[in-house]
């Protein structure tokens, strides 16, 4: 049988603007058409100044149907929960767990996006490095079966830079990790599933390129390992 024809490119779409976002909101600021909002962002992206607001929707940190005021209250409540959890774990965790997790996190934090102004500068007393260290350590101690794995700092750093708030970045990171956690677990089943999905997509979207990869023995796609683990984070400029 002939291979399927390549899929057509998506229609052009401008980045989501403030006016566009308001168009997806109804009375009292309730999000009425979440799937359409996601499709708009998928095809066109988001204006940089709106990322802090829109990423919260994309990461599903709010229960469905909340008004604008209810979302604000929910965010404040979850932020306070984070501060309580951080304090509890930092004072009640076993000292050896706290030391080993903290050391593993620190090893990555001091190397993560240090060329970006938000994380650049002297390490000593750096508030953003400290915030990244604390949110990742809190996550690891609060999720002992997963703990901390190399690469998580790469995922968390853009969230912290955009939210510019440790608690909100933690909330977003936890939500994102609900989807990404299988890729970081030992055994590699989550990554194997991602590789399988990518192979199926390539065969469907670009059969000619897929055939080229097969002819070169590269259809295992191992060169995509970092792309899939970190959601292409290192393949784009930080601002993108």
Automatic annotation (TrEMBL):
<protein>
    <submittedName>
        <fullName>TBC1 domain family member 25</fullName>
    </submittedName>
</protein>
<dbReference type="InterPro" id="IPR000195">
    <property type="entry name" value="Rab-GAP-TBC_dom"/>
</dbReference>
<dbReference type="GO" id="GO:0005096">
    <property type="term" value="F:GTPase activator activity"/>
</dbReference>
<dbReference type="InterPro" id="IPR035969">
    <property type="entry name" value="Rab-GAP_TBC_sf"/>
</dbReference>
<feature type="domain" description="Rab-GAP TBC">
    <location>
        <begin position="45"/>
        <end position="240"/>
    </location>
</feature>
<dbReference type="GO" id="GO:1901096">
    <property type="term" value="P:regulation of autophagosome maturation"/>
</dbReference>
<dbReference type="GO" id="GO:0005776">
    <property type="term" value="C:autophagosome"/>
</dbReference>
<dbReference type="Pfam" id="PF00566">
    <property type="entry name" value="RabGAP-TBC"/>
</dbReference>
<keyword id="KW-0343">GTPase activation</keyword>
